[in-house]
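Researcher: Quick test of sequence recovery. Tokens follow.
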């Protein structure tokens, strides 16, 4: 993992190297292209960001990651997709905890 920083606009982008698993290949295929000013880049889908944040929170119990997940869920997400992939990342209980709050 590494970061890109645009100092003028104070934008930080986290760059994560894709792992070679079925889920991570699917995550990569679901990415979407966005435009920032004259700059084009690919970003992860909301659901895949949720799953990644849950995976990051699992070993540490990071309240910051879980708060981010709850905020992302509050604006709507594809729950069927989340329930499909949560077992692959062993984050089912964390997902349910965030959905219930």
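Model:
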């Amino acid at each position: 993992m590494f970061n890109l920083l645009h100092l003028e606009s104070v934008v930080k982008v986290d760059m994560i190297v894709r792992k070679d698993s079925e889920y991570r290949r699917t995550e990569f295929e679901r990415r979407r292209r966005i435009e920032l000013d004259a700059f084009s880049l690919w970003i992860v889908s909301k659901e895949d960001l949720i799953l990644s944040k849950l995976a990051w929170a699992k070993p540490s119990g990071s309240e910051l990651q879980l708060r981010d997940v709850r905020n992302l869920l509050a604006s709507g997400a594809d729950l069927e997709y989340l329930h499909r992939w949560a077992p692959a990342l062993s984050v089912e209980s964390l997902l349910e905890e965030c959905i219930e709050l």
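The two ends are 30 Å apart (CA to CA).
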